[in-house]
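Hi W.,

Here's what went into the run:
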Amino acid sequence: MSELVSYDEAVAAFEPVLGLEVHTELNTKTKMFCGCQNSFGGEPNTHTCPVCLGLPGSLPSVNAKAIESAIRIGLALNCSIASWCRFARKNYFYPDMAKDYQISQYDEPLCFDGYLDVEVDGETYRVPIERAHMEEDAGKLTHVGGSGRIQGADYSLVDYNRAGTPLIEIVTKPVRGVGAKAPQVAKAYVAALRDILRSLGVSDVRMEQASLRCDANVSLMPWGSDELGTRTETKNVNSLRTVEAALTYEIRRQGAVLLSGGKVKQETRHWNENGYTLPGRSKEEAEDYRYFPEPDLVPVAPSREWVDQLRASLPEPPAQRRARLQGEWGLTDLEMRDILGADALELIAATVEAGAAPQAARKWWLGELNRLAKEADVELDAVGMSPVQVAELQALVDAGTLTDKLARQVIEGVVAGEGTPAEVVEKRGLKVVGGSALDDAVAAALEANPSAVESIKAGRQQAIGALIGAVMKSMKGQADAGQVRQLIMEKLG
Amino acid sequence: MALSTDEVARLAALARVDLSPEELAKLAPQLDVILDAVARVSEIAGDDIKPSSHAFEITNVFRPDEVRPSISQEAALSGAPAEEDGKFRVPRILEED
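Here's what came out:
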């Protein structure tokens, strides 16, 4: 680990400049250049063919849906769409790519010159986008022996199921003028990008499954300077929180290097889950991918009509959708900010869609579920309860089957994998009990606490608390306190 | 064009071809001949000839997004020099650092 200065010290002396490269896997049915099924996982090497195995004589053919998705992404990111562009070969030797080259795009990206506006603490920042281009994903390597890392492994195993998965790489221009907010802007950008990709329905955008990946570049330059500093690129950034954490760390580390009079080394670094970045392997030679136009594919030239048609069919942009939902749900700016901060908007929207009232949906996602997600250190949408299940839970509360207190126990059960809310209620026996059992409990409590009864009769209403407490205790919490109060008052009335 | 042996050595390294100094010296002039021939094409091509990367001026050759059968794991691995757990087994990629 390197020396660090405090974040405040680093950004007092230097202006951070960001550069973000995001790769997203498209969720087309088939791969980019062959008809093999495009899906996560599966038995190794069962979704392959001569094309994605790079066997001699095989020829790629372009997936029309992938081109369509790429254009839609470009349009949603306010990009221009090339009227004519080509694929290019990126040559490198690495066992994750059987052909010894990756089909990508070089100086003729399909989408270019766009931007994405993101919001941090109520302020809007415009992130300029240089390009969004098409390429194919590589296979998956497993390193065997040594410490399981690539360095010092005895050998490696390759599964080519993922090889040839359509990928879109979205690259920003240098992002300047965000100052100390740089890590937050980066996180908000990746989150906004994810929301857009999700709203377009073009990708599963699961960072933990690597269908959305981010390489985070940052450099520091003295305030007022116009000359960009030397940047580092941090790879392996696989969650929104990591984007922010890795950049914060790099700014502190680079700040320490520069403030002590040193020079930042241009290098690729890797984020370590323990909270720091480490240099990747240093390359002895500058990379030389010898890009050239892919001779096996003809150019892509989307017609104006096609692009206009795709533009017209774009879904409501997420920022607009947020404003609309806030109005529909009657939430304050502050409430909305909490929802966005917890990354709960789409979860709440889906819960409302499934029939719950907005305030109730918001309460569960920001309350109990958010707490459990933090406890388990996972993103909220991976907490283990679906929006439909939350709506189901709220329906049980609305029907009087559950109190809020019991509902929290049901949430715990669902998250622990015990089944649907109804199943957890059944298994744990959590139903609110009413009827004769409750009447009996109330009668027993009144009989056991004559002094409290006397006090209430004498007009000291606060004594009812002891009686309600006694009833709830004998009912093991499975009663509605309001209903208990009412029953007691009726009996004493 | 006069390609130097250093340049040929670099190309050989990029292509992972192990060449002796004698082979480098022999190949440099041969590659020169090829480069000269290609250079002559661009001399002949006037401004009225557009650069092209493909023999035909066609665009937008696409395939519908429909799954076709893949080959079996056994067939996929049939050409592999080594395999393990249904995966291709490849030699160590990087030495210990």
